Structures are given as structure tokens and as C-alpha cells.
Amino acid sequence: MQKPTFFRSTALALAAAFLCPSALLAAPDAAALRDAALKDEIAWDIVEGLTTEIGPRLAATPKEAQARDWAVAKLRSLGFANVRIETYRMPSWERGREEARVVVPFDQPLAVTALGNSGSTGPDGLKAEIAYFRTLADLEAAPQGSLKGKIAFVSHAMKASQDGSGYAPYGQVRRIGPSIAAAKGAAGIVIRSIGTDSHRLPHTGSTRFEPGVAPIPAAALSIPDAENLERMLKRGRPVRLRLLLTPRFPGEQESGNVIAEVPGSDPGAGIILVAGHLDSWDLGTGAIDDAAGIAIVAAAAKRIMDAGRPRRTIRILWAGAEEVGAYGGQAYFAAHGHEKHVLVMESDFGADRVWRAHYRLPAAARPVRDRIASALADLGIVSSALPARGGADIEPLVNAGISVIDLQQDGTRYFDLHHSADDTLDKIDPAQLAQNVAAWTAVLSIAANAKEILH
Amino acid sequence: MQKPTFFRSTALALAAAFLCPSALLAAPDAAALRDAALKDEIAWDIVEGLTTEIGPRLAATPKEAQARDWAVAKLRSLGFANVRIETYRMPSWERGREEARVVVPFDQPLAVTALGNSGSTGPDGLKAEIAYFRTLADLEAAPQGSLKGKIAFVSHAMKASQDGSGYAPYGQVRRIGPSIAAAKGAAGIVIRSIGTDSHRLPHTGSTRFEPGVAPIPAAALSIPDAENLERMLKRGRPVRLRLLLTPRFPGEQESGNVIAEVPGSDPGAGIILVAGHLDSWDLGTGAIDDAAGIAIVAAAAKRIMDAGRPRRTIRILWAGAEEVGAYGGQAYFAAHGHEKHVLVMESDFGADRVWRAHYRLPAAARPVRDRIASALADLGIVSSALPARGGADIEPLVNAGISVIDLQQDGTRYFDLHHSADDTLDKIDPAQLAQNVAAWTAVLSIAANAKEILH
Ligand SMILES: [Zn+2]
Ligand SMILES: [Zn+2]
Ligand SMILES: [Zn+2]
Ligand SMILES: [Zn+2]
């Protein structure tokens, strides 16, 4: 039933757009702002600046603090109001040395990186036999204690998709695999990177050990290295690995959100929150994850601001510490969850073009949705029948039931780069980045000025 | 004048191929052997084995020695005659730690790798201001002494091309840039990698210091890092770099060539030498450089051997120590240069398809050339008007005037991978590798059995 409904409503919206201009008061402005944004250079300037002048900015480190100061200066220079840092404290983790080497039956170094929250091997490293599992299910099926003294290796391979739908299931190897292996007595675990490229650059990301399970050394191999290790294992002889990982847990440290606003003319009309995250993993310069996202939302908000005061306040959240547990989004909700948010949106899936929009709006906001869908259609963006779900930094607000719209980016090559050293500025296509700004500008222009309720 | 001659001769060859079968006694066999080789699995097996069981095999190290033993076992198991190692001694160089970090005005790590023959910064590293040069010509133009205490940075960018023609001129930055910078008093030098990719994987390769010029620390930045450094420099403030490189020169060590043969039926007809190199750089597993090359020549030679004894001896040379100065090729020439070589060929440009053939043959071998060109045309391979030039391992024989044929591979993506950690098995397309074997099989079948002289 969803598809017919979807197509009928889209057809109605398109008919309205072409036949009933009087119903679409905000549309002409939105269209003009949208098209001007296709030449946007603000977002590029932000991404270029943050990746060049700050670079890697792991949560709760001095680099993330430098990034906050940089962000405040940048947002003030763009003319936003109420630019501020809101700090909070959080547990921290820091990468140390990382080396892996097959020592039996062959002798080869492997490209490896520790997962966030990995335990340490100690400075002398760990030498152990590999226990191989093709899938997470195979690891889960291993008998209790059967991994004693071994290094588990799980090679489950994710494939690329436009909607990134492989990440939720395959990413579980990273998220819960280490805790499962530890609970079964493993001395350590290496996984095939949760990625879709073929480069010697492993992909990091957080893992989480269940309460009562002591962290073991946990690392990702680059995909060519994981495949090499698989080939070694296929020869049928025991394979021994030397693993050296020396991450540290420096305890509670300071992190923070950066907030800025385009004040609305009608204080009762509520806040539209647009978010991305300022922190990044430490391996790359965090260009696609998530300098692009924070740049897109700020560039679109600036375009609305420069076009005249909108009805609703647009609040920009450049959240801290998303990568390591979404601490910034939780701190924001604790401080601001009681305020009147009427729409929340997040950009955190790279810098390639928006191809699809998801909505979660009340029935009374249907005309707004239709105007937005019409404005997006001109950019080649289709409406999805799936509900909008937001992102990690706005998750508490989404869970509280606030309206949400997702502008979903093309994720076909996102996991080639995600959480690896290869997340750098050169991967961003300025034209696709500007298309994002245009889509966000269209949505914000319509939503911030709509007479109808959004929530 | 070359083009008309070329087209006319090709037309004659094609006419001969279709109209005069009696003139082409060897051709039917060559075509059948060629087409069977399109299903070749021997070459893949060699590349897969060497990259999985040995991996990196830097010249004059224990890993190169392991590779020689592996090679002898593999060539014997394939049934070749006179399989042997011929050792020689040579100066050696070993990579140490390598780190680079911008410390002023920003703070970012850069992906870096030492060039072969680089000097050491010592264990404490070197901190110095960058002196930026867009091109090698700009570095050459710098006044004597103007680099005193600085780290030179040259960012000359090579572009990809099918024939790899960018490597000779742009590679000069790596080959002679460090010696030029050292002579002008530089404390160190970093260059943009001689590569065509956009990954955080720097490309190594040998540099050479002129006699009387003491080696300085010399390294390549990955291309995204070189571009990041350029963006920092464009901001107009002094940029300071911390560079740590601790390579060593362990003195004279043993290296060696591996040789195998398909004995010919007519000892007076001379030797056809087919070569590639067994050593690799230490960053990748040396799949495209040059496991592919040694695999292609051996797979083709085995196919000729299995089809019955050829008239001429085919000698396989898996040379040692090509990457660091072609010591293996020189040692081979010193030991065997006096023997009757009638044709020399080398495969050392990756594993992508052969698209063009170059020839340097005497006029009396024109019918052989025409039969070869005809057999290659079926594989989509065109004849070049440029003379064949061989490769580094056969260069002394080429310089001595021996006949040579080049089967030139498509190099469009070769320098994405070349001399970087990304030179691994996953980059090889089995179908293109087999096309190489088919081309070599066709050439060897015709040349080894030709009644005409080749030289
Ligand atoms: Zn993110
Ligand atoms: Zn992320
Ligand atoms: Zn080579
Ligand atoms: Zn090479």
C-alpha cells in the first residue's frame, strides 16, 4: 500500500506546484534561494578550512578543543547570532602504536588500526594463533572458552550501496564482535575493515564491551590485508599473528558542542535544529565525516539568514564527540531538550549529492512537505516512502517524537573512505557539495517560513 | 614518414596472414596456443603465491632471499630446466621509522615514506621551515645556500597516461631532486609522491645522491597530504615541519637472480631471454611490480615448453634488486652477456592488458615481426611506430644492440599503485593478466620457432 500512496501524493504535489501557484507562497523564494545555492562556496570554505587548519579532531582531545575555537570564529565571521561553546565531560580513549604481523607460517606485516575503546596488548604486543570466523554468526556460535589464548579474526565483507544499508548489519562485527570474542576468552580480535574500498587503509570506529567484559585488543585490518590473511588461512596450516596495540583510557575529559543561531521573527513558532558533528576520527582529516555535514547545514542557514529574518529560529548544532558515543547530542538534549523544537535535521553521510528525502511530519504539515518535495524534485531528489530517522546527534530529539526530515546523500562511495585515513578534502566534489547546500536551503527556506505547524 | 610505412607494412602482414598460409608455418600453432592462454591460471597462481607466502621482498634483505628460494621451488615444480640462483653482492638500504608532522602554523600529521637511499634525521627527527618549490625547475633555480637549514618541498604533479610517459619527466623530482636540494644546503626534502592516485599512501622509489653530496633525509608525501601542505603554504605564513626518518645503510649484502630454461632443439639458434624482477619495494606485496611480470613471462614460457621443444632456448630471468639500481640485470650481463642472445623482452609495467607492441628487429626478421603483429592483432594489440626499448633488467643487453620486442601494458592506473603499500593482489584483474600471457605466448611461440634470424 505504501507505493501507490507515495506515487499518488507525489503526483498531487507536482500538480499543485504547476497548477496552483497561489497555494505556494514561499515557493518562488525557495526556488530562487535553492538555485543560487548551487553556486555555493561557503560550505567548501568551511570544509577546506577545518581540514587544512585543524585536521583530525578526536573527541575529548586538545584537537577537538582547537576545532571548537576554530568553529566559533568561523560561525561568528559568517554573522550568526548566539555563537557559543557548551562543554561537558566524558570518558576518553586515545590511540597508541599499532602494528600487526603474520609470523607463522609466512612473515608479512598487515595494515591495522585499533578500534575505539580497544584494550591494549601492552608494549610487548601479543603473539597468538588466529581463530578464523567467516561471519559474526560463526563467532557467536563458537563454544564458550574455545577462543582461550587466541586472536579471533572475522572477515565478513560489506558491499557498497547507495543508501548505505549494509552498514547497520555488517557494522555489528565491529560494534559487538570484540565483546563477544572477549567473553569467549579471546586474547584479541582483528576484523576485516567495515569498508568497501581496496586500499591498505584500515577503517576504525567504536566498539563497545558489555559491562563486566574486560576490553581486549581489538583492531581492523585493511581490506587487502584481511584478504591476504584469508588466503594464508586457506592453505590450512595454523596462522600466528603478532599484534601490538597500545591505546590508553585517559579518563574523563572535556568535550563540547558549538551552537549558533539565525533568530526567528516569531518566538512562538519554535526552533528548527540543523546538526552535524565537529569531532572526527583521528586517522583522516574528517572531510566527509563530518566537516561536510556541518558545512552544509551552516551554509544553508546562512543563505536563509542573508535573505531576511525567517519566521522560525534556525539553530545550528556542531556537536562534539559523535564518533565515540554521541556524547554531544546527549548533552545538547540534556540542556535544551525542553525547548520548543519543531523540526530536527542532520547531515552526516558524506558530501555526495542528495538523492532522496525522508519525512516524518504530522498530517497538518502535509502542505509543507508537498512544497518541499516539489522544490527538491528540481534537484533530482525523490521522496522516500520510508520514515525519516535523523542522525546520532539529534537522536534524543527524534526519539522524543520531534518532526524530522532526512536529506539522504548518495552513499555509494561513502564506506570507501569512512573512518579511514582517506577521509580527506580531495574526496569532496564541490558541485555535489553545493547540491547539498541547495537542497538544505530549499528545505529550510520553506520550513522556517511556513505558516503551517511543523510539529 | 613513419606512419605510412607502418600502415602499409601492417596491411601487407594482414594480407599475408589471410592469403598466404604456406608462408606462415608456425602461425596456426601460435594462434591456438595464444587462445588457450586466455584461460591461463599459471600466472595468477604465481602472483597469488608470491604475494601471499612472501609479500614484500626488498633487495638484499632476508625477504628477498626467501623469495629466491620460493622462486626456485615454483620454477622447478613447473618443470623448467636449469633452475638456479646466481648471487652477487650489492650496497643495501633499509627503511626505519618514518613520521612527518606540520607543527606551525597548524598541527597535523602527514603520511610520509622515505625514498630509497634517503639519509636519516637521527632518532630525534628534524624540525625546519619548508622552502616550497612548485616544480623541479624552480628548485634547480634556487640560489646556492638558499636552502640552508630548510626542508625543501616540491609538489610537481604527474598525470596518468596509458603509455606511462609522465614517469620519465616527473619522476626526476624523486630521482635527482634530493641531491639538488642537498647540494644547495637543505636539511631535508619532501616531495609530492610520484603517483596518480588520491589515497593516503605515499609512493617510495630510489633517489640518488651525486658523488660528494651527503645524503639528506628525503621522503615522499601521499598526494592528499602534499595537497594539504600546499593549502597550508598558500595561507602565506611560514610552515614548519617535523620530519623523522631513520633508514640505515647496512653495507654490502647478498642479492641474486633466479634463472630457469626451456631448452631449445637447436643450440646454434640462440637464446631468447624473457625477464621481470623478483624483488619489490617493502611497502606493498609487489603484486603489479613485479610479481605480475615474472608470472607472465614464466606462464608463457611454460605454455611453449608444454607444446613441445622449441627451436630456440627460452631463458627466464627473475632478476634481483631491480628497484634499487638494477643490480640483478647488471650481474646477469656480467655473467651471461657473452652468450648468444637473439631476442630480449621484459614485463615490468603491471598486469593490465597489453595494448601496443614495439619492435627493434633487423630487416631480415621482418617476416617474423609481421607474423607476430598479426597474432597480436587478434588480441586488440596494435603495432607501435616507436622502437622497442626493453626494461631495466635487460638494459645492458638492449644497449649491446640485441633485438628486442616490448609488449606494452596499459599504464593508466599503474601509477595509482606503483611503489606504494597499495601494490597488492586485489589490484590485479585475472582476465587482463591472462591476456598478457596470451600475448607473450603468441610472441614466444613464433619467435622461438622462427626459421628466420632474429638478430
Ligand atoms: Zn559521522
Ligand atoms: Zn563517523
Ligand atoms: Zn618494476
Ligand atoms: Zn618499481
From TrEMBL, chains A, B:
Location of the Peptidase M28 domain: 257-441
The keyword tRNA processing is assigned to this record: no
Major subcellular site: endoplasmic reticulum
A Pfam cross-reference name: Peptidase_M28
Subcellular localization: Endoplasmic reticulum; Golgi apparatus; Lysosome; Secreted
Keyword terms of this UniProt record: Carboxypeptidase, Endoplasmic reticulum, Glycoprotein, Golgi apparatus, Hydrolase, Lysosome, Metal-binding, Metalloprotease, Protease, Secreted, Signal, Zinc, Zymogen
Signal peptide annotation: 1-26
BP-aspect Gene Ontology terms: proteolysis
Domain of life per record: Bacteria
Molecular function per GO: carboxypeptidase activity; metal ion binding; metallodipeptidase activity
Subunit (UniProt): Homodimer. The monomeric form is inactive while the homodimer is active.
Name of the protein this chain belongs to: Carboxypeptidase Q
Organism encoding this protein: Sphingobium jiangsuense
